[in-house]
């Protein structure tokens, strides 16, 4: 089993994975790191989590030495008060969750994560993701092909994705799809995968989960032409790392903006400004785990429970309470993905 699994974290944040059972897949040959470039991703800039006042959520009889943030805290009484959160983008199908997924699940439930949306990087993942949805009732998922997974795009891929989406009402989105010109320069090849997936989302009336890295302009050109023709799906710009001006352009197209662990990185000033500026009804929070663990766990394997750290940082940037950000981001995720009311 070990020979099927190579993981290099955090230096390259590149994960190469394969399933032990058929169908095998080699997993994402991509990285989701350092949206701000290598300097911003340096682990040397680890800093304290955002200054928050956990005392508002700590019971009166709690120990005097309160943790510096709720995401570091675990007392049972405190957990009960945590607001419901949605991790709107995760990849727990990856092999580095094989050994302790039940414990990972315990931690996301203790952190108040009531629903997870699982992203998909290529069709061979779908049976395993579906099995995870069987195992964890709070999991919903997307089907799609990542822009750096061009090697997995076949002529019948659109019909495979269509059948998978129609076969299970727990499929709540198409994705992750998009453009990534940070790692690759094959824009035309990526567009050939992007366009049929956007068509499929429109056809099935599903939102899209968009991965867009160093590619805001060509993505905007594509979405604007669709909007002009009245066939631009709704969706979310996941793991947002663009500028405030780019964010405004995607908001105009009806997109949601999802903040990940990158919003906790001290040098991510554009992302900080976006978190302050985004309208309350248009943002989500996510982990994109196992990538991009937020401060204070930066450089380690990320997991859904840590979405709490993302929400805390967004709250601090917006000058709002954690409860307010949790309520808002959860309502937004519920609306975008049409999550069942009894889930969150
Ligand atoms: Zn992505
Ligand atoms: Zn992802």
Helix content: 25-40%
Largest sheet: 8 strands, parallel
Q: Write down how many β-strands occur, each being a DSSP E stretch of 2 or more residues.
A: 10
**Quaternary organization:** single chain
**Pairing-aware structural class of the strands and helices?**
alpha/beta
Tally of DSSP helical segments = 10
Radius of gyration over C-alpha positions, nearest whole angstrom? 19 Å
Q: Residue ranges: pLDDT <50 for 5 or more in a row?
A: 1-68
Q: Provide mean pLDDT, rounded.
A: 83
CATH architecture: Alpha-Beta Barrel
At CATH level 3, the topology is TIM Barrel
**CATH C-level label:** Alpha Beta
The first-to-last residue Cα distance is: 36 Å
CATH superfamily: Metal-dependent hydrolases
Task: Count up the domains.
Answer: 1
Output the strand order for the largest sheet: 3-4-5-6-7-8-9-10
Shape: globular
SSE order, as H and E? EEHEHEHEHEHEHEHEHEHH
């Amino acid at each position: 089993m070990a020979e099927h699994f190579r993981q290099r974290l955090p230096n390259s944040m590149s994960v190469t994975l394969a399933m032990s059972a058929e169908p095998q897949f080699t997993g994402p040959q991509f990285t989701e790191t350092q949206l701000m470039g290598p300097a911003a991703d340096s682990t040397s800039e680890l800093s304290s989590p955002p200054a928050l006042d956990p005392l508002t959520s700590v019971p009166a009889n709690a120990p005097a030495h309160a943790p510096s943030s709720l995401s570091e805290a675990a007392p049972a009484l405190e957990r009960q008060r945590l607001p419901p959160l949605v991790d709107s983008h995760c990849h727990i199908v990856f092999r580095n969750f094989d050994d302790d997924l039940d414990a990972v699940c315990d931690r996301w439930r203790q952190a108040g994560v009531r629903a997870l949306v699982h992203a998909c990087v290529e069709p061979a993942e779908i049976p395993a993701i579906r099995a995870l949805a069987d195992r964890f009732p709070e999991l919903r998922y997307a089907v799609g092909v990542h822009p750096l997974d061009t090697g997995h795009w076949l002529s019948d891929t659109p019909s495979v994705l269509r059948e998978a989406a129609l076969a299970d009402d727990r499929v709540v989105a198409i994705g992750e799809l998009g453009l990534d010109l940070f790692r690759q320069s094959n824009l035309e090849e990526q567009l050939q995968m992007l366009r049929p997936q956007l068509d499929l989302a429109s056809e099935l009336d599903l939102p899209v989960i968009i991965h867009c890295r160093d590619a805001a302009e060509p993505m905007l050109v594509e979405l604007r032409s669709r909007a002009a023709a009245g066939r631009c799906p709704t969706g979310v710009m996941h793991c947002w790392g663009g500028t405030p001006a780019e964010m405004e352009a995607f908001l105009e197209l009806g997109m949601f903006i999802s903040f990940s662990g990158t919003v906790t990185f001290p040098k991510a000033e554009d992302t900080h400004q976006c978190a302050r500026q985004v309208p309350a009804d248009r943002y989500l929070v996510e982990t994109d785990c196992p990538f991009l663990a937020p401060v204070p766990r930066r450089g380690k394997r990320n997991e859904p429970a840590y979405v709490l750290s993302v929400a805390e940082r967004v709250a601090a940037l917006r000058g709002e309470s954690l409860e307010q950000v949790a309520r808002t981001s959860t309502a937004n995720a519920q609306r975008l993905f049409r999550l069942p009311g009894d889930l969150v």
